[in-house]
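Revision sheet: structure tokens.
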Amino acid sequence: MTGTLYGLGVGPGDPELITLKAWRILRAAPVIAFPAPDTGPSFARAIVAGHLPGGQEEIAIVIPMRVERFPGQAIYDDAAAKIAARLDAGQDVVVLCEGDPFFYGSFMYLFERLSPLYPTEIVPGIASVTAAAAALGRPLAARNDVLTIIPGPLDDAAIAARIAGAEGFAIMKLGRHFARVRALLETLGLTDACAYCERVSLPEQRVLPLAEAGGEAPYFSMILGYRGAEAAIRGRSVASRSVPFPESSA
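Predicted:
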């Protein structure tokens, strides 16, 4: 009998925002795997560091953090082989996933390779979009509103078209695209309807009106906008929620 593969959503960053189910599985698994940059520590592992019981085998899936393309298929092939060896030995393996495993998560590439061969369970986590809305204090959408999630690297025409078809929208993966996206929203007359959210749920969180956001944006940032008719959403002041996230006790 083989072990079980778990895709474990660990939330946006606050260690207290993992679910009870994720905590239980995390502490019981003999092996944990997690994405890690080629420079610096793993963010996913840092989120759960205080919950680890100790003595678990750790598999770091090193993914280069750079603009140019890297041999991603080879990286996930190698990681899948390492994980498969533990599963074949009857050990459960937990793969840590920032946010939710199936929301822009790299776990999908391991899931593609391993789920046809091994028992697999997905444990959903709090996604950054919902965490950002909570920090902002403004709902994402209501009633029959359409909510659209837009990757920042898309070109201006594609972003504008997707915004035009939605009442609520979130633009993610800003990073080096922030200045261009902000300029586009200004052209569309939507600056005042948007908020900028950075490192939500972490002590260094920033949440403020888009008009007040300047400089560069990190990868862990997004813009939340609303152009619908719901008065309960349109009437919410962005500036009133520009406060730090309470520091976790974990």
